[in-house]
Amino acid sequence: EVQVVESGGGLVQPGGSLRLSCAASGFTFSSHAMSWVRQAPGKGLEWVSAISGTGYSIYYADSVKGRFTISRDNSKNTLYLQMNNLRADDTGVYSCARHSSDWYSFDYWGQGTLVTVSS
Amino acid sequence: QTVLTQEPSFSVSPGGTVTLTCGLSSGSVSTNYYPSWYQQIPGQAPRTLIYNTNTRSSGVPDRFSGSILGNKAALTITGAQADDESDYYCAMYMGSGISIFGGGTKLTVL
Question: In chain B, which residues have their Cβ closer than 8 Å to the Cβ of A26?
Fold first, then answer.
């Protein structure tokens, strides 16, 4: 059974940092691109960042470029999101999503981890 | 900046048919954007319904179907059921690794 489970969320002050993790199981992790998708309270889904299966290709939404860093450790079947210089509008539930084999959509989602940026 | 536009809310009667749409601010939707659709019950993880315009994800009942209608992507639910009451999001692949989501449609079944 395919599973992705996020962790690492919490309360952080504006300007602070946080590192999220996503543990994957039930599939060949290195064969799939992965993304982080977030959802602000009461709002819709927002794609944040994507990384290819090898980790060689990386992409970011303009809203997080220069502040967030996506990475993966295929030996540990784990995806990461390093978030620096956090702002109040970064608050939300952060979910990892597995890309379909052709990259163009998402086929499995985690439940997410809540990040709250507040003083 | 490209935006996907969805109806904020929609209502359908049990057993009825509803079509939700997803428009592209920069022009017409085509299969080249690989439109996909996701269902999300508030507080739960999204569930993939449709990918590559009209391919149902594993386990999704055939009363959910995807298409291109005019210049928009469309999700049609035929024979709506009470547990279809949910938020529905479209997404498209914009190239260069970038994906975007629509603002979502809140579907009420009553």
Answer: none
What's the rounded Cα separation, in Å, for the pair B110 and B108? 6
Question: Could you tell me if A53 and A71 are in contact, meaning their C-beta atoms sit under 8 angstroms apart?
Answer: no
Say what the pLDDT of residue B72 is.
Answer: 97
The number of C-alpha atoms within 13 Å of A109 and in the hemisphere containing its C-beta is: 22
Q: Give A57's contacts in chain B (Cβ within 8 Å).
A: 97
For the stretch A15-66, pLDDT in tens is 999 999 999 999 999 999 999 999 999 999 999 999 999 999 999 999 999 9
Which residues, 6+ apart, have CB-to-CB distance to A85 below 8 Å? Answer: A15, A17, A67
Q: Which two tokens stand for residue A44?
A: 């819709």
Which residue carries 């970038």 as its tokens? B98
Mention every residue, 6+ apart, whose C-beta is less than 8 A from residue A24.
A2, A3, A4, A34, A77, A78, A79, A96, A98
Angle at CA of residue A95, ends A88 and B99, nearest 5°: 90
Question: Within an 8 Å CB–CB cutoff, is residue A114 touching chain B?
Answer: no
Chain B environment of A61 (Cβ under 8 Å): 98
Among B98, B99, B105, most A C-beta atoms within 10 A, so best to mutate, is: B99
Write out the H or E segment, with its range, that includes residue A107.
strand A106-109
Q: What is the CA A51 to chain-centroid distance, rounded?
A: 10
Integer-rounded Cα radius of gyration of chain A: 13
Please give the C-alpha separations between residue A68 and each of A42, A59, A99, A110, B98, in angstroms, as whole numbers.
Answer: 23, 11, 20, 19, 15
